[in-house]
Amino acid sequence: MNARPLLQAEHLHKEYKLPRGQTLRALDDVSLTVMQGETLGLVGESGCGKSTLGRCLLRLTDLSSGDIVFEGRNISALSERALRPIRRRMQMVFQDSYASLNPRRRIGDLIAEPLRVHPDNEGRKRSAADITARLDELMSLVGLPQSALARYPHEFSGGQRQRINIARALALSPQLVVADEPVSALDVSIQAQIVNLFTDLRERLGLTYVFIAHDLAVVRQISTRVAVMYLGAIVEIGDTDTVLHNPAHPYTAALISAVPEPVIRHDAQRSLLRGDVPSPVSPPSGCRFHTRCPQAQPRCSAETPELRDFGDARQAACHFPLGLSA
Ligand SMILES: Nc1ncnc2c1ncn2[C@@H]1O[C@H](COP(=O)(O)OP(=O)(O)OP(=O)(O)O)[C@@H](O)[C@H]1O
């Protein structure tokens, strides 16, 4: 793997203003680097900010503050116009394969749309013959027959529609694909096929992924590294094997505990998550996980732990990390 950073996010904050003057902190000082050719899995309970982070990384949602450097260029403050040539290099695949496809248009038209809008690498408008050739290429990349191009979205199964969405996302040969729960709505047997397709495409095309999923088994299968989010912050990040088999953060351990043992083998003590996730409108002081943490000590409610290196290809934000010296 070529170990160059493709995307660097520094101190990202995203706040939503709610009615009655309240502020919801969906992202609270998130920093991460996505290396060229890797798959960074983003995990965490519903509402922890995974989708917001994915959308902010691609500038589909505006940041409240922070910097995003993509291919060496700071894109955090670029206008829509200046972003246009960059957008083709970063694409998103969503969970709901049907909602992303206009039901009244043929698959060929849907996939050709970005090819008609964006010029080719030499800045020229693509010819009809070029577009047809590219459509054929994309169909074979995602494992669909050419005949699919003349049909409509409702004629396909969920898994096939996700293949169509992937083909559309790949039309302009992006470097980075952010996939937001791309297999969550699919049957388990189909999930495996689509995860394999993502892996295969990464290898064939040299793609880089940010792969958002709440299902740890899926994330383990596809990710080279994993970032665990809790209440708008990254609490642990590192190599997939290290994080999922030997978690340092009690929250990661609790997430893993919730997965049946044969799916993910782990040495962590069983620790069940107690209580509900606190509101991101008024997150707990200190470590935001302290209200649910079985390990919590007085220091945890007083002092916010920073993400720290533990010399084993992982960082965790915990004063009393599991199995590691504090
Ligand atoms: N447009 C919005 N306006 C106000 N609050 C929002 C908006 N979008 C997201 N939020 C809030 O921001 C927080 C993070 O949401 P986000 O969708 O990013 O989380 P998630 O981890 O992707 O969850 P899920 O898996 O349920 O999609 C949540 O508390 C959510 O309610």
UniProtKB/TrEMBL annotation:
Q: Which PROSITE patterns does the UniProt record give?
A: ABC_TRANSPORTER_1, ABC_TRANSPORTER_2
Has the keyword Transcription been applied to this entry? no
SUPFAM superfamilies, per this entry?
P-loop containing nucleoside triphosphate hydrolases
The principal location of this protein is membrane
Q: Name one Pfam family in it.
A: ABC_tran
- List the Gene3D superfamilies: P-loop containing nucleotide triphosphate hydrolases
The ABC transporter domain sits at: 7-256
GO MF term (any one) = ATP binding
Instruction: Indicate how the chain sits in the lipid bilayer.
Output: Peripheral membrane protein
Cell compartment(s), UniProt: Cell inner membrane
Which of UniProt's keywords are assigned here?
ATP-binding, Nucleotide-binding, Transport
Q: Which PANTHER family match?
A: D,D-DIPEPTIDE TRANSPORT ATP-BINDING PROTEIN DDPF-RELATED (PTHR43776:SF7), TRANSPORT ATP-BINDING PROTEIN (PTHR43776)
Question: Hey, which family's this protein in?
Answer: Belongs to the ABC transporter superfamily.
Q: What protein name applies here?
A: ABC transporter ATP-binding protein
The record lists the lineage as: Bacteria, Pseudomonadati, Pseudomonadota, Alphaproteobacteria, Acetobacterales
